[in-house]
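Appendix C reproduces, verbatim, an entry submitted by the partner laboratory led by Prof. M.T., so that reviewers can inspect both the input and the predicted structure.
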Amino acid sequence: MADRVYRLSDFDFELPSELIAQRPAPARSASRLLRVAGSALEDLDFVALPDLFAAGDVLVMNDTRVIRSRLLGRKPSGGRVELLLERILSVDEAWMQLRASHPPRVGGRIELSHAIATVLERDGRFFRLRFDAGMSLTDYLERFGEVPLPPYISRRADSNDADRYQTIYAREPGAVAAPTAGLHFDQPLLDRIRERGVAVCYLTLHVGAGTFLPVENEELSQHRMHNERFVIPESTAQAIETARAANRSIIAVGTTALRALESAAREDGAVTALAGETDLFITPGYRFRVVDRLLTNFHLPRSTLLMLVSAFAGYDAIRAAYAHAIRERYRFFSYGDAMLLEHQADA
């Protein structure tokens, strides 16, 4: 199927709205897990995950930390404005995604709680803004920003989200969306994984606001991914090379970890320590060089993430897995259930 030319409509599916998880499970590891290996499907509880690993395997997790990156304001005319951080540029400037019925022009002002933002530049859906807040933008967001829940969660963020929309190992501030595959892990589960002799390693990829942007062109080659910053430390690179030499598995926790690893890999699959940016757009036909298994949540129709998992596990396998998950009433998206995907080399 690798020679097939895929279009945006190939990644559409019907999802009952009640399957979109609006809140997390009562406990982090209390979700379900669908194991997908080609045409083979297995329904499991997430707490069974450690039993699927072997000594010498490497589990790679994204330790980015979600910052309070959503702001609500108004234009001088009274029109409502919603801002979502893309990237902080300096102590008082940032690129932000802006939603308004009539977006302000360059030079326009946005009135926020205890601050004024001025539009300096526009690039499509993104606006470069300067903030007059009497403090650094980082401090302002921490004090007045909201947890940036995805748009398909139809409620305002509450105090519980400040904890649950964050992995337990989040360390490096900079993301505007959580690496949601990691939300299922609690400390006892991580301890069990380490007890099996699995190396648990970390990298950092700061998820940007571009992750929420839809693919709008039927021709996938016309879609432009926004750059996201990543760092792969030397300890993680060394652990991966040790595992590859011993023919052990590399398991990426989330599409963000996978994209960082694949962006840093050489043609032969070797991974070295690296800090850089990636705009890697993975669609069916892509040749994976590093990752053997992928732990991930269920993704939106017509999304770049659905295209990525289809490339990794096989287009037909993912279609069948999603149909099965809908029949079996799995919970979808950020606060939903998980899948463990085996890489299919002929996908």
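DSSP finds seven helices and 17 strands in the chain. Additional entries are available on request from the coordinating office.
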